[in-house]
Amino acid sequence: MYRSHFGLQESPFGITPNPAFFYAGNTRGEILQALLYVVTHGEGIIKVTGEVGSGKTMLCRMLESQLPPHIEVIYLVNPSLSPLEALFAIASELGLQPAGKRGDEVLRELHADLIAKHSAGKQVVLLVEEAQAMPLATLEEIRLLTNLETARNKLLQIVLFGQPELDEHLDLASMRQLKERITHSFDVPAMPPELVPEFLDFRLRAAGYAGPALFSQKAALRIARASGGIVRRINILADKALLAAYAADAERVEVDHVNNAIQETTFKKKNRIVSHATTALTLIIVLLLAGIAWLLWRPPLPALAPARPAAVAQVAPQAAPPVAAVSSKNLPQ
């Protein structure tokens, strides 16, 4: 709708991950290069965590698009699978026919297929999305697949993508062995406010925009504050702000257009840490106010009758021993 108005060839702020719009700033380029290195060198299990909408799926798509041809990529996108269902899904991704077979039969076929691929100079990497939502037993089953190996190489490379809850699961005693198999961990950070103007401009240029800065500095920083630095939120607000500017027949996006976008958008709380901290602070304030109210409104205590003075026992002073009582035998000679 607004594309022709602003000279765009396509929508710049779609939320579906598109490698053509991958922004390498804010350490994302470095994370991608590190992922490419560790995957191609077959170094154990890799973990990538980040908040909802932080860009994990985009990294996953970029990783797949840039891996060399000898590496075969398979996906496990349904996190609710049981251990056996996950095994069957992986086998199906590799072109095997697991239907109607026992789990141990499928595992043997999977092992044989991976050995054949390794002998042919190929490598297989399993990309697991939404790993934090996966049953613990299924995560353990995936760990066991790393036992499929030759004398020198792992036959299956695994990359886990998940929200921070994945780390909480890995801290459980039952997940200790899986945690110890993770050789590299990466965290996708939120976008700092100072990079949001650059991010917006990059996406616009990737969509074919060729004019001067389309978002004013104040508008971009307003998006940064309202989004909390979460990339998906930035894209949603930027898209709605462009629509508001188009509706107003404006040549660029200003703060008022962003404010209109914010009013039409409801985001959940940014993360659980802020939520927990806010809850704890609220509880403390409520308890303090309750204590003050009790002190101010408590009923007066009944007056106590004056206590009678207790009788004081008369104790006769003890007489000092007579001088004569000190034996001369005890005196120094």
TrEMBL record:
Keywords: Membrane, Transmembrane, Transmembrane helix. Coiled coil: none annotated. InterPro entries: AAA_22 (IPR049945), ExeA_AAA_ATPase_DNA-bind (IPR052026), P-loop_NTPase (IPR027417). Pfam families: AAA_22. The chain crosses the membrane at residues 277-297. It comes from the Bacteria. Residues 41-169 form the ORC1/DEAH AAA+ ATPase domain. SUPFAM superfamilies: P-loop containing nucleoside triphosphate hydrolases. The keyword S-adenosyl-L-methionine does not apply. One of its GO terms (molecular function) is ATP hydrolysis activity. The keyword Protein biosynthesis does not apply. This is AAA family ATPase. The lineage of its organism: Bacteria, Pseudomonadati, Pseudomonadota, Betaproteobacteria, Burkholderiales.
